[in-house]
Amino acid sequence: MEIDLAGAAIALDGETNAIVDAVLAALRANGGRIVEGAPTGAADILLVSCPLRAGTKAGDPRSLYADARRAAVEMAERGGRIVFLISAVAGMPMRRHPRFSMENASILAAMRSLAMEFGPKILVNAVGFGAVEGDAIVSGDKAMLSHTPVGRAGSVEEAVAAVLFFCDPLNSYTTGQMLGVDGGWAAGYGRNF
Fold first, then answer.
1. 141 and 97 in contact (C-beta within 8 Å)?
2. pTM for the model
């Protein structure tokens, strides 16, 4: 996918991992410029990166919401985009990881609230990652793979493509959505784990 970001300023709020690093590199390669140390509201695109591995604390949803809302207020006049990078368990909880599932579901609800409050000037979306492997598992839980219709973990490149969709200037109508990049894991929840 090739997009032209025409020098759009991109800020990151949250954790880095192999997916985030690859997303930032792809945005830079597509004409974006990464702004570090500037207030997140000074950006045209804000990436809110949450922990992606089950068993880790996803962070305080209220704090993430407050940070993203503050950025949205600053972006409101000129417009912009906010993309949350979260776990697919936001939309389909994992019995083995109830707390992580609940925290991600809260973040998803916060994202949708921001989309309603700040549309149409700001598009707010999320990408929900299932099992994604780089050199090691970057996102998800290996148990997801036994119930993934495509029969494999996703690649970092596939994860990046989904984030680029929400950053693409041609995508001007999608807001309040979570795009599940999980190989179909959430589609068939007849699991016993």
1. yes
2. 0.94
